[in-house]
Write the structure tokens for this entry.
Amino acid sequence: MAARPYPWYEAVSGDDLEQGDVLEACPVFQPPEELATGESLSPIFDFEDRDIIVMTQTCDLVAGREKVGTVVFCPVWLLAVYTKGYLATSKGREEIRRGNVPAYHMLAACELAGLERGVRVVDFRQLFSLPLGFVRKRADLTAPRLRLLPPYREHLAQAFARYFMRIGLPVDIPSFR
């Protein structure tokens, strides 16, 4: 018996935000190093357009009841961009798919008409935050956009939490081999 289809994504528009929303080509800002030392009197922030996914919990983003002033994101990359190293190997890709590489989380390809995308990888090693008002305006201008659906959204959130709750022990129990 074949598994019944269970959608990973829906297409959304407007300024409503939820965890798992993907903003493509969204500017993320990088302050110049000179700003840290006070050397720059008129700081100019560089930005890059990145595909990013909302990691802030949906309950903190509800319009009119916001509990945050900024939104946390992680970058999202097409799996196809990994052409060298471990992530380019079939073993590396399978390990990410299984959830065995804590810094990465794999998202299925999207087949929604007009929003077709290949398999993607969320990279937890880099975080961005942007002001909530800026993100709402950007989301409103980016229509339609992808939203990760339950239970895949919760699976992403759990992987994110596992990555940040890791504890490295100074001395481990010796191997039994």
